[in-house]
Design brief:
Number of strands: 17
Helix content: 25-40%
Shape: globular
Structural class: alpha/beta
Mean pLDDT: 70
Low-confidence stretches: 1-70, 80-87, 416-504
Order of helices and strands: EEHEHEHEHEHEHEEHEEEHEEHEHHEHE
Strand order of the largest sheet: 5-4-3-6-7-8-13
Distance between the termini: 24 Å
Number of domains: 3
Strand content: 5-15%
């Protein structure tokens, strides 16, 4: 796995890679093999090394550095229901697929916000040859099987419980996902052979009460202002211990207020947009002594560049089967935009692009763990990752507003939005043909999965029920995603081969 999406469920090798290993399924926790497929991990890995081919270039996203032709790159992406697991997760996987990397994603599609938006993201990823598993990163047995089937080279861990304020309502969910879930994933990586390199999403919130600006990686992070920040700081300490003891290559990325299309609906820019358009008042917080709050808003495309740069420069893990063979790299980087913008300025930019005046309700910032400002020093990321953010807040919000307008237009036409509306006549994303449901612990779903034989073409009928995938299923625009985001099929075919998974 090269990039990680933490949420987790069932799994299979990416179908778009010509699989020499045809994992026939998972039944009651057991791998089921068929048709002469090597039954042991060693045999499967040996067979795979002989015949696995790089996947076709499918999908949309940012092009990355060229990879060695003789080494296939597999990335696992974990992504729960937060923004980075949603937008960042979707954007990173698209970029990886475009450059030919094999990608498997894991997401638990929880209800922290409307799961239909998450399902719409999944539909887009699936259309581009990314296999997304519904499950949870706390499921150690699931992760062990996933690592046993696919020889991941990298893990991009973007899953977490997000939101500073929600931690006051449901603190246990933060420890469960951001601490326990991280440890479960690290255990799976530690025991894998080969061990993958890990890139994971920390947060700018770890700087807490630090008042030095701009925030640098060398600044103190021992004064978290929220439980969310504390769990992210704990994650940095935990990953360091796994690096030191087990030789795992680990890179932590401190994201600074990520925003853009497909983002998290509870974030200020998203909720402000919806409320302004609906004529509802927006609540604008300000700090002590009437000081405006400011954030280092970072557009999603820039975050993706930082993630890809981190993956491409990650050194190898040095352990084998849980035993360290030598020192491995441990890195921490800020990924921000370096230009903090006040909340009133954010509102003014939205008013300009929406052409609607906001009804503002200005109040003092409550004591819920939020900090008054963030400001990233990205010199280290620029030097070591080649990270250069290119989108200012005005340009980024303009893109978001255009995306949101398309969603509203689609909703009014009865098509799938990702916000509760559905495509007329379509199947619920969570359900398969004949009412079966996917996911770990659900009813049996017999999937035959393979990626497109070439970009934009899937070909012919795909199952006995007559469910077909049109030749143009490869989506190249958000409009097509909106139209087809609720479509699910339970069998894909490819001329090069078929990977099959059964979940029970």
């Amino acid at each position: 796995m090269r990039r990680d999406c933490s949420a987790g469920g069932s799994f299979v090798p990416l179908a778009s890679c010509k699989p020499a290993v045809q994992a026939q399924g998972v039944r009651g926790g057991e791998l089921v093999h068929g048709g002469g497929t090597p039954a042991t991990r060693e045999e499967r890995r040996g067979a795979a090394s002989l015949s696995r081919q790089p996947p076709p270039l499918v999908g949309c996203g940012l092009a990355g550095a060229d990879k060695a032709k003789d080494e296939e790159q597999w990335t696992e992406i974990t992504g729960k229901v937060r923004y980075m697991d949603g937008d960042s997760y979707k954007a990173c996987t698209g970029a990886l697929r475009k450059r030919g990397d094999g990608v498997v994603g894991i997401d638990n599609f929880n209800a922290y916000y409307d799961p239909s938006l998450k399902k719409a993201r999944k539909a887009l990823l699936t259309s581009h040859g990314v296999f997304v598993v519904e499950g949870d990163i706390n499921d150690g047995r699931l992760l062990a099987k996933l690592f046993d089937v696919v020889p991941f080279t990298h893990v991009l861990h973007l899953a977490a419980q997000a939101g500073v304020r929600y931690a006051m309502e449901n603190p246990a969910s933060y420890v469960h996902s951001n601490v326990a879930g991280l440890v479960t994933l690290l255990e799976a990586c530690k025991n894998a052979d080969p061990q993958p390199a890990i890139v994971w999403a920390s947060s700018s919130s770890v700087y807490g009460l630090n008042d030095k600006v701009p925030f640098s990686e060398s600044h103190r992070t021992d004064q978290p202002a929220s439980l969310y920040a504390a769990t992210k700081k704990a994650g940095e300490e935990i990953t360091h211990s796994y690096n030191h003891i087990y030789g795992l290559s680990i890179t932590g990325l401190r994201f600074f207020t990520v925003y853009g299309p497909w983002g998290r609906p509870d974030m200020a820019y998203f909720s402000f947009t919806r409320n302004i358009l609906q004529g509802k008042p927006i609540t604008v917080y300000r700090g002590k002594n009437h000081v405006d709050l400011a954030r280092d808003f970072t557009y999603i495309d820039d975050i993706v560049k930082g993630c890809l740069g981190s993956l491409d420069t990650a050194g190898r893990s040095t352990g084998t089967g849980g035993k360290k063979r030598g020192p491995a790299p441990y890195r921490i980087f800020n990924l921000g935009n370096t230009s903090p913008v006040t909340v009133p300025t954010l509102v003014a930019i939205l008013e300009k692009h929406l052409r609607v005046k906001a009804r503002k309700h200005v109040v003092e910032m409550p004591g819920n763990g939020d900090v008054p400002f963030t400001h990233a020093n990205i010199s280290l990321a620029r030097q070591q990752l080649g990270y250069k953010p290119a989108t200012n807040l005005d340009a980024g919000l303009k893109k978001f507003v255009k995306w949101d307008a398309r969603c509203i237009e689609a909703r009014e036409g009865g098509r799938q939005l990702g916000f509760g509306a559905r495509v007329a006549g379509s199947t619920e994303l969570a359900a398969g043909p004949r009412g079966r449901r996917w996911g770990w612990g659900r009813n049996v779903a017999d999937w035959s999965v393979a990626g497109p034989a070439h970009a934009g073409h899937m070909g012919g009928p795909v199952n006995a029920d007559g469910v077909t995938l049109q030749d143009e299923l490869s989506m190249t625009s958000l409009e097509l995603l909106i139209q087809r985001s609720a479509e699910e099929v339970d069998e894909f075919r490819q001329h090069d081969g078929v990977a099959k998974v059964m979940v029970k």
